[in-house]
């Protein structure tokens, strides 16, 4: 088991990183982690979530902890709150002191007292509040009295606060629920707030508001914040300092400007994989090769080495040293700042012939409404209100909207899963449209073998067993999966592999139209880039049109020829993807402005290389 | 396009291997052993019984151990061991048969209702609601009292009141599964009708059904016992455990073995079933 | 909310109507000829036939069904062939004893079950031994517990009375028929205490299996609730683990255990039938046994209807309580 080497250089880099941090550096750290280790027992093996983490958070600063799944970022947050599960064979090591309390060895009562000086905001506002208790009661548990509760609600921007106390969580929207969580977190002027992906589940415009709120609050009540997120851009919107985590270790730390000058190859890779409004659309996205390491593995060298394009032999033989980085912070790398751009110098896509011929898909005046409730509480919600859409053969169209816009329903109408109340759906004859789902794992039947599921559609084609097996193997290869997965069940594959599987199933009998329902929203940034590239390649190879639903305008721009913006069940704008930034429509401009990280400078580094 | 040549297997090997006996916990092994013993006793026991369960073979009310009567004799001088073995067979095999039949029937109805929805679902669920609103044992008693006492009728009556419980369980599971994305995906892939139900819905409901059914065996045995206790099973002198308890209950203070022996036999059967249910539940729980 | 309660009541009535009709049909199916049984074997065919016509047994079936329904709704359950008394009178004597026993047993089961469920949850999820011992407890049938209880506590140790309901010949039976309550109301603490003593063995015997079932279900829901996001939020507020348990976990986990309680009642009735014999409890079980032995179908029908009614009412009440507890349904 390797331990992050913190030696004299550790001291140096800490004092260096005070650049850009508020003045109050004399007071003791609010959070201090030294060699923190956390591991769980899973299926008889020991999975390491944190492998020796050193971190210090000073009073009044916002630290952004950035990592993908498996980085251990959530575990760190839970550990600080003392909320690690007490079963599951949890083992801890090292030191973790929060606001003066040794969290790893404190009693339950000591932890309760500590938690009253801390605040917590978690990811999913839908499930983070007790559904059977009124908001007021839940707030009062923290504040003690109603007056404070009302004040808090008002300070986080909830109107009619006094009335709201009597409401139940299900009567509030997602954004409002998250504000309530924040209100609870800031009550009692905590010294540290731990926010674990507080905005990930929210619409992009709501996310922007919440981030503004957090910034505002920090100024007003002078607390520290540990802001955990997978999105570097979001972190850069709020954090004074950013720390990057990978596979249970911290690989880089620096001031906010780190995002312009990443020192560690992984950070650089994350930045490159990000979808921005200036990412070139004429070629595959840069990606980080390979996959996350197995949490149970115990490697000697740098955990990122197997995937690193700048690696040398040294990297895999010994743990990387911690050195000072150009941006003033530190980085754990043998060859920092020399990141040859991790961008694969991929060739551009072969340009397609312009879409021609008869329409591929035509929707005319589509109306869809759903009724909920029974009897007196019956309510009809109009989800789609007179929508027209045309997709040419071979064209890729992105449908962009926030939640409630009706975009997913539109997709299901095209798929034939939902019947419109009014309107026509005309599809070019050919194989029925197929869909790639957002949650690939959930779209696969858990108890059936992979090969059987992928080959399901082949049954109608009149092929015999061996022909089906051959076709399945061929399709799996097309999406980059080894043939060996055929006999496995979906649960035995990784998240990325399941996503490829979803695609394989959709294209085993190539449809003329491929429907994608937010296929990358739930994925890590690096994985999302891989999937988008795969979609691009497959689409071009098989000549399919594509309808791609997303809430992310940047992704839409990369994937589509044309972008259609939907709000409240109607189309409000149609644009050519390349002209997205020229839009004048107020709603689209709001969506654009809300994209986090517009502060990051946007020159793609491949241009620098070419100079 | 990057592809990994190795397949990282998430979690321990969950292939068929894990389902083999070797991976069972100690409790699991014990329950399998007990189940095996019980089945052997049920099938072969009566053949090995030392005496005819219906014949008077000794003095009445002899305590266990006297004169080679392992469990003693009852108030008519019949060998309690032989009677108990016969009773165990009747009860256990009867319970297993009824359970299997009602579970299968209930599952069919449940899958049909849960996946079809609409009118079919409403009608079927109303029917099961009515059945479930009434106390099953009491209704079974009323049914047998009306159609006549015999072992077959008792089992039939129990089956009639028992299946709705499984239908409801399966229907709820299937209805929940129907809303899941993998069913949508299957539909898109062109899977329809019977295949959709048998491949994409039913297997998901089976674990819950199996667990519920195995944990239910105990209740079923007790209901059967209650029926035969009331004289609603095979008529005297048939060696049914419940009837034996009934006739022996007046002697509980001075000749307690008359009621203790059949009661302990029933306990053993219920225990076997319960432990088997727990083991199966644990295995299925770990798989998912 | 009122709408829901109304709906439940209507559904209950519907179910009961079905029950009564079913019982009626069963009566027809059975060989019992109530008129013949009433007049005795020596009466001639003509007399029997005449009596049948007069009593309405020759009317078309639907008419008979409706008439029967009407009678039942007025509380007339017919006349017992065996005792020659109205069935409702017989039951008025026998039923309260069983109800009191079951009420006592269910209370013990619920209290014990909740305590057991909460305690075993603290132990953690992985312990197979918890599951194992609960299964073992569940497997022992109530009558075996009663037998052992009588043998050990009554016969051998003499701590508890051996059988029956009370030792007092003048125990009050008004107004409720529940000896404990009536005793207290009449100021006879000795009677009330004695009644409790007599109930201990049979009630505990009946309560074990439901107690374990409730504990098991509660444990499962508690474990799953404790993993939920809102419990994590509650814990993060630093309000103390006991408070989290009661206000957050239990509140949301109680649902399945509550519905189970209603269903367990059916099994308890079946168990009571046997247990009452063991301890010579003068309840419905004994009455039912004798009715079956003498093929007294009107009594059997009466018992079925009354117990069915009790069961339906309790379950409807449970559903209403559950509804009250879940604001997602009743609010807005």
Key features of this structure:
heterotrimer; A: 611 residues; Rossmann fold; 21 strands; disordered N terminus; disordered C terminus; B: 288 residues; mainly alpha; MetI-like fold
Molecular structure report:
The complex is a heterotrimer of chains A (about 600), B (about 290) and C (about 325). Residues about 1-20 and about 600-610 of chain A have low confidence and may be disordered. By secondary structure, chain A is an alpha/beta fold. Helices cover about 30% and strands about 20% of the residues of chain A. Chain A has helices spanning about 10-15, 75-80, 110-115, 135-145, 145-155, 160-165, 175-185, 205-220, 230-240, 265-275, 315, 405-415, 450-455, 465-480, 495-505, 525-540, 555-560, 585-595, 605-610, and strands at about 30-40, 45-55, 60-65, 90-100, 100, 120, 190-195, 225-230, 240-245, 250-255, 320-325, 330, 360-370, 380-390, 395-400, 420-425, 435, 515, 545-550, 560-565, 570-575. Chain B has about 290 residues and is mainly α. Chain B has one domain (about 50-285): Orthogonal Bundle (MetI-like fold). In chain B, α2 (about 80-115) packs antiparallel against α3, α2 packs parallel to α9 (about 255-285) and α4 (about 135-145) packs antiparallel against α5 (about 150-180). The longest helix of chain B has about 35 residues, at about 80-115. Chain C is mostly helical. The interface between B and C is large, with 50 and 56 residues.
Corresponding CATH superfamily of chain B: MetI-like
How many extended strands of chain A? 21
Extract low-pLDDT stretches of chain B: 1-18
Helix and strand element order of chain B: HHHHHHHHH
Q: Note the overall shape of chain A.
A: globular
CATH architecture of chain B: Orthogonal Bundle
Remind me, CATH topology of the domain at 4-117 and 188-338 in chain A? Rossmann fold
Helix content of chain A: 25-40%
**CATH homology group of the domain at 4-117 and 188-338 in chain A:** P-loop containing nucleotide triphosphate hydrolases
Gyration radius of chain A, to the nearest Å?
25 Å
Task: Using a beta-carbon cutoff below 8 angstroms, give the protein chain pair with the largest interface and the number of residues from each chain.
Answer: B-C, 50 and 56 residues
Whole-number average pLDDT of chain B? 84
Counting structural domains of chain B, the number is: 1
CATH class of the domain at 4-117 and 188-338 in chain A: Alpha Beta
Would you give the CATH topology of chain B? Answer: MetI-like fold
Distance between the termini of chain B: 32 Å
């Amino acid at each position: 088991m390797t331990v992050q080497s913190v030696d004299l250089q550790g001291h140096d880099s800490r004092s260096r990183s005070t650049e850009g941090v508020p003045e109050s550096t004399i007071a003791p750290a609010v959070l201090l982690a030294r060699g923190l280790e956390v591991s769980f027992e899973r299926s008889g093996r020991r999975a390491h979530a944190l492998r020796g983490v050193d971190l210090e958070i000073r009073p009044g600063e916002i630290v952004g902890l950035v990592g993908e799944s498996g980085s251990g970022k959530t575990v760190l947050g839970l550990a600080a709150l003392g909320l690690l599960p007490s079963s599951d064979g949890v083992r801890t090591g090292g030191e973790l002191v929060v606001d003066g309390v040794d969290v790893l060895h404190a009693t339950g009562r000591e932890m309760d007292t500590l938690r009253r000086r801390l605040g917590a905001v978690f990811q999913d506002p839908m499930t983070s509040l007790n559904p059977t208790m009124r908001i007021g009661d839940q707030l009062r548990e923290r504040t003690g009295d109603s007056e404070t509760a009302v004040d808090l609600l008002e300070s986080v921007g909830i109107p009619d606060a006094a009335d709201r106390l009597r409401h139940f969580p299900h009567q509030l929207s997602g954004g409002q629920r998250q504000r309530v969580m924040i209100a609870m977190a800031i009550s009692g002027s905590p010294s540290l707030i731990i926010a674990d992906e507080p905005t990930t589940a929210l619409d992009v415009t709501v996310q922007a508001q919440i981030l503004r709120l957090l910034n505002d609050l920090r100024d007003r009540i002078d607390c520290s914040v540990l802001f955990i997120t997978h999105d570097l851009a979001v972190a850069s919107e709020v954090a004074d300092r950013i720390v990057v985590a990978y596979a249970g270790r911290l690989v880089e730390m620096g001031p906010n400007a780190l995002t312009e000058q990443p020192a560690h190859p992984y950070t650089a890779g994350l930045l490159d994989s990000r979808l921005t409004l200036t990412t070139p659309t004429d070629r595959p996205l840069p990606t980080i090769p390979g996959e996350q390491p197995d949490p149970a593995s115990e490697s000697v060298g740098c955990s990122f080495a197997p995937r690193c394009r700048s690696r040398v032999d040294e990297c895999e033989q010994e743990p990387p040293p911690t050195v000072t980085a150009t941006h003033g912070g530190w980085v754990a790398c043998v060859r920092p700042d020399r990141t040859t751009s991790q961008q694969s110098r991929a060739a551009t896509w072969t340009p397609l012939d312009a879409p021609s011929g008869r329409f591929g898909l035509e929707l005319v005046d589509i109306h869809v409404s759903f009724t909920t409730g029974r009897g007196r509480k019956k309510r009809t919600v109009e989800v789609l209100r007179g929508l027209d859409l045309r997709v040419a053969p071979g064209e890729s169209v992105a449908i962009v909207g926030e939640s409630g816009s009706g975009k997913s329903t539109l997709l299901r109408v095209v798929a034939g899963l939902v019947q419109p109340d009014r309107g026509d759906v005309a599809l070019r004859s050919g194989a029925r449209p197929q869909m790639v789902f957002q949650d690939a794992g959930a779209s696969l039947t858990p108890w059936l073998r992979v090969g059987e599921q992928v080959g399901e559609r082949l049954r109608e084609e009149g092929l015999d067993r061996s022909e089906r097996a051959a076709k399945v193997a061929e399709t799996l290869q097309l999406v980059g999966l080894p043939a060996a997965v055929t006999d496995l069940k979906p649960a035995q594959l990784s998240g990325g592999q399941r996503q490829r599987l979803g695609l394989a199933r959709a294209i085993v009998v190539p449809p003329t139209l491929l429907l994608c329902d937010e296929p990358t929203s739930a994925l890590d940034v690096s994985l999302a880039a891989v999937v988008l590239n795969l979609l691009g390649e497959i689409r071009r190879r098989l000549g399919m049109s594509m309808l791609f639903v997303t809430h992310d305008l940047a992704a839409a721009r990369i994937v589509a020829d044309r972008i259609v913006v939907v709000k409240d069940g109607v189309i409000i704008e149609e644009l050519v993807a390349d002209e997205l930034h020229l839009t004048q429509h107020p709603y689209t401009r709001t969506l654009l402005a809300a994209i986090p990280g517009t502060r990051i400078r946007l020159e793609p580094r491949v241009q620098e290389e070419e100079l | 396009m990057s592809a990994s040549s190795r397949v990282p297997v998430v979690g321990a090997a969950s292939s068929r291997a894990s389902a083999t006996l070797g991976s069972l916990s100690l409790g699991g092994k014990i329950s399998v052993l007990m189940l095996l013993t019980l089945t052997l006793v049920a099938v072969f026991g009566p053949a090995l019984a030392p005496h005819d369960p219906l014949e008077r073979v000794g003095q009445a009310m002899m305590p266990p151990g006297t004169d080679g009567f392992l469990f003693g004799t009852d108030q008519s001088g019949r060998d309690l061991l032989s009677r108990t073995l016969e009773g165990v067979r009747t009860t256990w095999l009867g319970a297993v048969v009824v359970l299997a039949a009602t579970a299968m029937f209930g599952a069919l109805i449940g899958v049909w209702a849960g996946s079809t929805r609409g009118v079919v679902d409403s009608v079927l669920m109303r029917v099961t609601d009515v059945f479930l609103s009434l106390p099953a044992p009491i209704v079974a008693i009323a049914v047998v009292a009306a159609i006549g006492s015999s072992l077959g009728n008792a089992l039939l009556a129990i089956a009639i009141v028992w299946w709705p419980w499984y239908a409801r369980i399966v229907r709820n599971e299937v209805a929940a599964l129907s809303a899941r994305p993998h069913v949508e995906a299957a539909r898109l892939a062109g899977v329809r009708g019977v295949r959709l139900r048998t491949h994409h819905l039913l297997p998901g409901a089976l674990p819950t059904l199996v667990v519920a059914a195995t944990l239910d065996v105990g209740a079923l045995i007790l209901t059967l016992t209650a029926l035969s206790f009331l004289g609603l099973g095979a008529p005297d002198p048939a060696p049914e455990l419940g009837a034996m308890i009934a006739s022996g209950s007046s002697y509980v203070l001075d000749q307690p073995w008359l009621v203790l022996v059949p009661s302990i036999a029933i306990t053993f059967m219920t225990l076997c079933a319960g432990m088997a249910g727990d083991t199966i539940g644990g295995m299925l729980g770990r798989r998912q | 909310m009122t709408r829901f309660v109304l709906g439940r009541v209507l559904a209950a009535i519907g179910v009961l109507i079905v029950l009564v009709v079913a019982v009626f049909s069963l009566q027809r199916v059975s060989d019992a000829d109530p008129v013949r049984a009433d007049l005795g074997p020596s009466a001639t065919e003509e007399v029997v036939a005449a009596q049948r016509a007069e009593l309405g047994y020759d009317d078309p079936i639907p008419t008979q069904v409706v008439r029967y329904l009407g009678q039942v709704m007025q509380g007339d359950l017919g006349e017992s062939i065996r005792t020659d008394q109205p069935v409702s009178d017989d039951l008025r004597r026998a039923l309260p004893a069983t109800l009191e026993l079951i009420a006592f047993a269910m209370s013990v089961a619920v209290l014990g079950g909740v305590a057991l469920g909460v305690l075993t949850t603290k132990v953690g999820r992985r312990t197979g031994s918890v599951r194992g011992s609960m299964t073992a407890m569940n497997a022992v049938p109530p009558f075996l517990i009663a037998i052992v209880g009588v043998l050990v506590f009554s016969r051998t140790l003499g701590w508890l009375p051996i059988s029956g309901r009370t030792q007092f010949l003048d125990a009050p039976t008004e107004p409720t028929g529940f000896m404990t309550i009536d005793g207290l109301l009449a100021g006879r603490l000795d009677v009330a205490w004695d009644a409790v003593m007599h109930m201990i063995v049979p009630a505990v015997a009946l309560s074990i299996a439901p107690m374990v079932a409730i504990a098991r279900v509660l444990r499962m829901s508690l474990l799953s609730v404790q993993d939920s996001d809102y419990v994590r939020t509650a814990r993060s507020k630093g309000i103390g683990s006991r408070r989290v348990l009661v206000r957050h976990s239990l509140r949301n986990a109680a649902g399945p255990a509550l519905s189970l309680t209603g269903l367990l009642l059916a099994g308890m009735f079946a168990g009571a039938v046997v247990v009452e014999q063991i301890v010579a409890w003068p309840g419905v079980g004994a009455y039912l046994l004798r009715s079956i032995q003498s093929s007294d179908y009107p009594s059997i029908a009466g018992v079925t209807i009354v117990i069915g009614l009790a069961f339906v009412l309790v379950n409807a009440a449970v559903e209403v309580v559950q509804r009250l507890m879940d604001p997602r349904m009743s609010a807005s």
